[in-house]
């Protein structure tokens, strides 16, 4: 069997590795535009800030690693057309026949049509070359004032990186608060204060209308002109679906796949940022576009290419980040989004400490849990705190994945030791708060 | 209604607080031997090491806090007899009538009948006065060589405290490896190496037969005499059941309760270290004797005293500790114990890193997962690593509490960010290892 993967990113590379684990003989070919196989796009802000010393380090494995596993790589190669009748991919160099095709074409940074957005000094932060270009620009021009457009994860991580490099930073967000798809306003405001205390400023509910100077010297927000000598555009990503669309596959916001990750053509799968998945809470098709989702889709698609019939479960989009010394973890639906979707929820919220009161070094932590009113199931969580947010979001996410109810959390077993956590964990208390509201 | 609680420790104090939340008017009386209400016994080793500066700090709330909640305290008072016919408790001072009685009599350190165990310089580490006595002894005699009898949690935490105070430390354990009820030998040996590198020595499969000198100057192991000027006996605890037994309640290793935490007398409940619970894996009655279990039993018993009919679920004994800079987390059954119980299991084990390879500061972590062969359910986990063990054991424990299978973990969603965790988490890989063995 000849399996061809288009895309050498996280989804494509992991697919190839999983597929090889499942079958020693199958021909596995990866077509990719870059010089290397997968690297970690989530790591780019940390290369920018200098926390990861070398850009090349974020390439997960050297090409030889894939060669040893007999994964054929056609790198620096662009797939131009899929001829589904002949089962052939036409690249800029060659024709590649396939038995099974896996689309892992990823996503690209979305750049809104702001006047002047093409000017020097305006960047996105999605690919390795973005970091190279930003680093060269910083070296050459030593910018002092940065504007970041968009207060999503990449925007905030980029803002922190700029701040850590010594710049004044202003984040401009069209919506009402930061991390608008991941957090509610009450929780976002905790993050905002934390970032403001560390010198990052915010403007919400407004957009940048123009970028002035070339290289950039300022941006315009309404009639106001704000000095800026570097601009990061972080307004989300869009699925790369052109190839799939031209091949006549079903597309909505991303490539449409069934629960086995097959597209409308049963010999073609789609995985990673380019493909839609099901939202575990709303049941709607969404673009998850998380690295973990890409890896998990790669695993399931590899199994299904070999006829294992594994279903890819709906996703909760469990996510974590660290901004300065604050951890932020989330999954599922926000209270704001639930309102829009008409889902009635019961919320429990608690601010506590990460350690028992008597143990030195505890840090504030706020836990917000969102339960469905009709069946009491945990459908969302937002946690912000100085440490051990990750563990709590992991625990709650695994509980939600197993359809835990408010009682399961309120009466659940936690792990306690004085240097690590309180006897009665903040997640337990938040669930108790919600439980009382159910009565 | 007049509710009387015997025992002012974690279980008793929390019961009183939960009961007050549920009913503003009920008369709630706590009879306790100490001067204060609950303190955290788990914190004692950390007071000893100096990490918690003041012993008094580990008292969770001052007595005024309970007074404000109209919880009547009869402290420095010993309950002598329960007259179930008259529904009266006879104390060393008074008679106290009750409508509902809650036994929270706790546990005491078990001291094996070693020759000389009563001598000066031999201590347990179970109560506040133990720490006071050890600290006075250390101040007065400046011991240089410590022997710890027992390599359970308290033994190891005590050994670390002694080591941090500058002593040479030898731990003597009758069984084959450290933390014998929580870990298998393969995982225990990682912990052992870590402690040995930091100057703690071990002897396994042997016991101390005699304590020499008064104050102690040495211990005997077989015919061998080992110098020692302080000895900690940490050979477990025993449930305090005398009062319940004399009252004619059903007793096995602890006070027997049903799933509503009622004893064989429907007006008497038992909670915390003195009461038996059901083991979530074996279904057997066990003594859990964890602080978290005590609190959780207190909550359920409080609800049931007010006729809420809440069942106390079987326990996995989820636990965590930190020894120097190593975190150790466990729950459920070990592979060794499963063998003894005749439970067939499939194991997945993986050694990885706590962060992606490209991110500086990742630490080794070993994950061992134990699944039932017949139904694939997760029934045990052991994790040892330099950081973020707690989050992983919390996530896995919540998953197990919701009856997660090997697939649920292998395909589960985790939260990933470069500074925090790898894209493919070690728990996922360990589950994949096990999954392959099922096939």
Automatic annotation (TrEMBL), chains A, B:
Its cofactor is FAD. Its EC number is 1.6.99.3. It holds the Pfam family Pyr_redox_2. Keywords: FAD, Flavoprotein, Oxidoreductase. GO terms for molecular function: oxidoreductase activity. Gene3D superfamilies: FAD/NAD(P)-binding domain. InterPro entries: FAD-bd_OxRdtase, FAD/NAD-bd_sf, FAD/NAD-binding_dom, FAD/NAD-linked_Rdtase_dimer_sf, Pyr_nucl-diS_OxRdtase_dimer. Residues 1-282 form the FAD/NAD(P)-binding domain. Residues 323-423 form the Pyridine nucleotide-disulphide oxidoreductase dimerisation domain. It is an enzyme of class 1 (oxidoreductase). Coiled coil: none annotated. Belongs to the class-III pyridine nucleotide-disulfide oxidoreductase family. This is NoxA-2 NADH oxidase.
